[in-house]
Amino acid sequence: MWADLRGGGRRYLWGTAPWRAAAYVVGGALTGVPVLVTLTASLAVGTVLSVTLVGLPLLAALAFAGLPVAALERRRLRLVDPAPAPTPHRAPDTPGLTAWLRLRAREQATWRELAYAVLMAFVLWPLDLVVAACTLALPLLLAGAPAHLALAGGPAGGGVRPAKLWLVESCPAACGTAALGLVLLVALLYPLGAYAAARAALARLLLAPREAETHALLAEVTRSRARLVTAFEAERRRVERDLHDGAQQRLVALSMSLGLARLDAEPDSPLAAALATAHGEADAVLAELRELIRGIHPQVLADYGLPAAIEDAADRSPVPVDVDTGTDTGTPLPRLPEPVESAAYFAVREALTNVARHSGATRAAVHARHARGTLSLTVRDDGTGGADPARGSGLTGLADRLAVLDGTLTVTSPPGGPTVLTLEIPCTPRPPSGPAPVE
User: Fold this and answer.
1) What tens digit of pLDDT does each residue of 146-165 get?
2) 256: which residues sit within 8 A by CB, 6+ positions away?
3) Structural domain contains residue 439
């Protein structure tokens, strides 16, 4: 709104800003009445019933009366202030009404919103009403003087008093009053817009998140993302375990049964040929399932850790890969939190897949170290370079996955090579037992 006012007279008058300001002020006057009635009635009833202790819960509930008012006011702010006004409240860590009430009672935003509700009920809406009456109602009543005079029977009806200001007894006087009302309406649209902007600034000051609350909300989002990653990894392991212990075992039994049936069938008979085909298909499906299980969550990663998993990924790469995880130098990688190991392993797999498919490299190298609370992993190849993360979703997906763990992904790939992919994830070594912490 301030930008519209500073933009000049025509820009402000011919735009939607005056009507949005009018709707904001009139809406404040209309909203304040039920807020006043609700607060005063609840306070009166709670005070009377508090003698019998029945009213104490009602009085306690008044502490949260500002929550719905604040939610409505943050939505109304869009009329004059398009900047987002998100809620300053955090989500409870545990479900249930008790956790929600306990959290809200500890938040400063709850009490600021209650103060705003009281201010709105006793100060702001009467002020809104006065401003709306002076800047809108008065000019419109003057502008309606000809219609008012006509409804009163014309000049023969004894005249009218628009807005109770002066007597209008003739049509020329009514037209002059109407012209004055229109001029006054246009002139008063500027102070109306200024008041609406100041009113919105006060609402934003009390109802929008402050810097400390914004940091708390961001910290909560970060923790929730970490919990989601942990839950995703647990679900990934469950799916891998179910496939390994369920579908894979049944396929192994099926393959063995088909093999035994082939032994009982007559050689070179149609039945033997059909059983051989079925046996081959079962073996192919079993091989694909094993590869799928390895892609979901490799057992070597869960059993032996990241160095062995990287060695396994390098052995499966069609491009020769030199692996250095510190084992030869006496500083091997420790066991790291499961989400970190999983993210690093799949980053190596994605990088080696890109090397084989797109780089034209003849050799690659993987270097991994954990020092000063950070896992650093580098994948280098001697290919043609020119890798662009924007051309595919693989590297972008890796960057998003690392961001959840506060990690970073850097790709350096000048034309002609070499291509170097570097990732860093802050983490602490996994303790000998118990859950794996993630920083």
Assistant:
1) 787 777 766 665 667 777 77
2) none
3) no
